[in-house]
Specification:
With 408 residues, this protein is of the alpha+beta class. Helix content is 27%, strand content 31%. It has ten helices and 25 strands. The strands form six sheets. The chain has a six-stranded mixed β-sheet, covered by helices on one side. β8 and β9 form a beta hairpin.
Length: 408
C-alpha cells in the first residue's frame, strides 16, 4: 500500500492514509481529507491538464460505469475550483493551479495597508518568559471595543508564564478598537475582526519568538504532560475534560507543557520532532472547580473571566511543575484523545493514523507559518510512528494509570 504522495508544484502536499488522502494547500493553509473516490480523482489529475471526459472515463473504469460518476466528478471539480485549487482552459480541461488565491473569509488575519494603524492610547506591558526568552506583549483597547473580553482573557492566559528575568528580546502588541483587533509582530502589523484568529496569530508569533531557529510544524489545541521520559499529547475539544485531567496530573507530579495549545517543531539538531511547551494558565470552567480546588486551593481565589459564551477561572501552575529544557523530556511518546464519560471503561483504544488526523482537525490543528513539504512529511511521519489512542474515563485515577503506561 502506498504510504505517501509527494507535494505537487510546490503548492500542494498530499499524504495517502489507508484509502483516504490528506491534502494541504501550502499557500492557502487549508487542509482537506478526501474519500477514496476524491482521492482517485486527485491522483488522476496529477500535474497535467486533463479533459474532464477523460477523467470521467478513468473514474468509471475504477469505480464502475455508474450514471452518477460524471455528476460526482463535476461536483468535486467545482468544489476544488471554489477553493482556487484548479484552473480550466478555454476547452474546459482542468489542471491543478499554481496561483495563490487571496483569503476571502472575514475572519482571516489581514496585513495592514500602508497608513493603517490602531488608534493611539495607553498600553499595558505584560512581561514574561517563554523557554528562557524574555518577551513583552503590549495590550490596549479603546472605548466600546469590538471584542471586550479579549484583553482580560489575554492577561489571564499569559499569567501562567514565569516572570521575565531580563529585558525583552521581542515585543508584540495587541490593540482592540471599535471595529478591529490589531496585532503587531516582527513581521508587521495585521488585523482581524475575530478574537480567536487574533489570539491564534499572536500565539504563533510567540512561538516564533520563544523558539528561535525552530521550524514550527504545527500547533494543536491540546495538553501535553510527562513523567520524565517524554510527553503524552492530549488533543480535545472544549468540554471533553482535558483541562480537569491536566490539572489533576500536574498536582500528581507530572510535568506541564501546556493545556490550551502546544506546538510541534523541528529544532534543527538532527533529533526527532519535539513538543514546544506553552505553559499558559489553565482555563478552568465552573463544572471542574469543585474537582480541582481539592488539588489546587488557589483556584478559588482566581478572578472570573468571561469570554465568548464561557466563564472560567485561569489557574497558573507553579514554574517548578513546567516541563524542563532537556530535549528528551519534550519528545512526544503518544497521542491520546481523552473524554470524560461517567460510563467510560478507562481503557486505551488504539486508533488509525487517519482517525487521528480527523480528530486533530476537529480538536483544532494549524500548520506552521513556515510551511513546506519536508516539514509536513516529518509531521505525518511522526503521527504514523506514535501510538495513538482514545481514552474514555470515568475517574481521574484510572485515566492516570492508563497514561502512566505510555511514559514509564
Amino acid at each position: 500500500m502506498l504510504t505517501g504522495v509527494a507535494a505537487i508544484d510546490r503548492r500542494f502536499f498530499a499524504r495517502l492514509l489507508d484509502d483516504h488522502l490528506v491534502v494541504i494547500d501550502m499557500d492557502g493553509r487549508d487542509l482537506r481529507v478526501f474519500n477514496p473516490a476524491a482521492t482517485a480523482l486527485w491522483l488522476l489529475l496529477g500535474g497535467d491538464v486533463r479533459p474532464v471526459a477523460d477523467l470521467v472515463a478513468e473514474m468509471a473504469a475504477l469505480f464502475g460505469d455508474k450514471p452518477a460518476i460524471a455528476a460526482d466528478v463535476a461536483a468535486c471539480l467545482d468544489d476544488w475550483a471554489g477553493l482556487g485549487w484548479i484552473e480550466r482552459d478555454a476547452a474546459g480541461a482542468v489542471a491543478l493551479t499554481r496561483a495563490a488565491v487571496p483569503p476571502s473569509s472575514p475572519d482571516t488575519v489581514f496585513a495592514a495597508l500602508p497608513g493603517e494603524a490602531p488608534p493611539a492610547g495607553p498600553l499595558t506591558a505584560v512581561s514574561f518568559t517563554l523557554r528562557g526568552t524574555p518577551l513583552v506583549v503590549e495590550v490596549g483597547q479603546t472605548a466600546d471595543p469590538v471584542a471586550a473580553d479579549l484583553v482580560p482573557r489575554l492577561h489571564a492566559v499569559l499569567s501562567g508564564f514565569p516572570a521575565a528575568a531580563g529585558p525583552a528580546g521581542v515585543r508584540l502588541r495587541l490593540v482592540v478598537d471599535r471595529t478591529r483587533i490589531w496585532i503587531g509582530t516582527p513581521d508587521g502589523l495585521a488585523w482581524t475582526t475575530d478574537p480567536s484568529a487574533a489570539l491564534g496569530h499572536l500565539v504563533m508569533h510567540l512561538f516564533l519568538a520563544g523558539y528561535p531557529g525552530t521550524r514550527l510544524m504545527a500547533t494543536v489545541h491540546a495538553a501535553a504532560l510527562g513523567r520524565g521520559r517524554g510527553l503524552v499529547v492530549m488533543p480535545g475539544l472544549s468540554g471533553c475534560g482535558k483541562t480537569t485531567l491536566t490539572g489533576y496530573l500536574a498536582a500528581r507530579g507530572w510535568s506541564y507543557a501546556g493545556d490550551d495549545i502546544i506546538a510541534i517543531g523541528d529544532e534543527g539538531d538532527g533529533g526527532p520532532p519535539r513538543i514546544l511547551p506553552f505553559t499558559s494558565a489553565l482555563s478552568v470552567k465552573p463544572g471542574s472547580w469543585p474537582v480541582l480546588e481539592r488539588f489546587h486551593p488557589a483556584l478559588a481565589a482566581q478572578p472570573l473571566v468571561p469570554y465568548a459564551d464561557k466563564l472560567a477561572r485561569f489557574l497558573p501552575l507553579p514554574a517548578d511543575t513546567h516541563t524542563g529544557a532537556d530535549p528528551a523530556e519534550r519528545v512526544p511518546r503518544a497521542i491520546v484523545f481523552p473524554r470524560f464519560d461517567p460510563a467510560g471503561s478507562g481503557n486505551l483504544v488504539p486508533i488509525s493514523t487517519l482517525d487521528c488526523v480527523l480528530e486533530l482537525v476537529q480538536a483544532g490543528f494549524t500548520t506552521g507559518l513556515q510551511l513546506d513539504g519536508a516539514s509536513l512529511g516529518r509531521f505525518f511521519d511522526l503521527l504514523e510512528g506514535l501510538p495513538r489512542y482514545r481514552l474514555s474515563y470515568s475517574c481521574l485515577e484510572t485515566a492516570e494509570r492508563c497514561l502512566c503506561d505510555l511514559v514509564s
